[in-house]
Design brief:
Rossmann fold, 19 helices, 3 domains, four-stranded parallel beta sheet, 9% strand, alpha/beta, Fumarate Reductase Iron-sulfur Protein, Chain B, domain 2, binds iron/sulfur cluster
Length: 399
Amino acid sequence: MSGERRAIDALRDVIYQCNRCAHCFDLSWLGPDFREKCPAYRWGKFESYTGRGRFFLARALVDGQIEYDADIAARVFACTECRGCAEHCFKYLSTTDIYAAMKEDLARLGLVPANMAAGLSDEGGLGEYHNVYQAPHDERLAWLPDASRVDRPAEVVFFVGCTSAYARQNMALDTYDVLEKAGINFTVLSDEWCCGHPYLAAGMTARAVETIEHTLALVRQLGARQMVFNCPGCQRAFRDDYIKLTGRPAPVQAIQVVELLADRLQRGELRMERYRPKTTVTYHDPCVLGRWMGIYEAPRALLKAIPGINLVEMPRNRRDSYCCGAGGMIRWDFAEMAALAGADRIAEAVATGAEILLSACPACVMQLQQARQKARSRLKVMDITELLAAQIRPVRVAG
Ligand code: SF4
Ligand code: SF4
């Protein structure tokens, strides 16, 4: 990359601030509940997979002691982007900004891992199909119960996302259902593309911006002022990533369906039916919803409002939550690491004694369902929208 601008060089000052304390991956001194923070280190075992290790690599890069190569790429891309390291960094350094810069440089050098590169390709991948499942684009709304919802002027756009649209269509239907029960005037987009999040995981920032702008143009045409998501990764692309990448805010408010519902519940516009029989549940914080966007309490407020539901917490919850293994698109090239993280999280959920493990992200739910199957556990794994669709009722105002 000689002579070419590298993203990592702009972060030299941040890289030099790392004091090499290891808080980003080792909090064992806090007790057994904190034993693992970084799924990449848990799997890879070498320090080069951790926050501190990557800061070492980044420093050697900016100091001109090493050059990017496939070994560095393997360290950087074997990361679930869970932000466990950033949350616990002793110096409050945004570790994930360093990884994002390294990914951007590696993408320019053609060092994206093979399966990820194929999955995002313009020939047979995301670039061609506009979804990560290589499914026909014109089947994106195959789950939709009412065609009159498509492309109509509305205040709110329900952005379905690839996983809900193709792999977990019950989540699309459940979200649709709760939005109807909440009395929201919403539409869905006939030409919805992937949110762009997978391009970001690969360091392909220009492609991510292009993808986000495709959707924003459609949203603008319909005059919508709000986008509602059931996938935190999609929401983050519009809420946080777009402004970070372009310096311009997206001209629309991007909120998660659990935020919208918690707000309506608090205002007395929704009520909850009793859940029978009385059931104990536990809740897995999706990394993007929690650590990336700070949304910890809205899903808990909804669960606590359901009579008959008893919420118990896993030892690692909220900012200390442990990644399920689905983040960073690692399932494409680091399937073993993803499976290990999923198995760890299922074991932690089972140990609470809960009958149901809930989450608020299609990728987490899919990953945890597969981990549960492998563990042959009787634990039920479901998305929070499924439970809410069954329990939520609108409050009818008399007169
Ligand atoms: S983001 Fe998560 S997986 Fe990646 S280095 Fe940090 S703690 Fe490890
Ligand atoms: S916790 Fe922060 S300062 Fe300490 S080694 Fe990790 S990245 Fe560096």
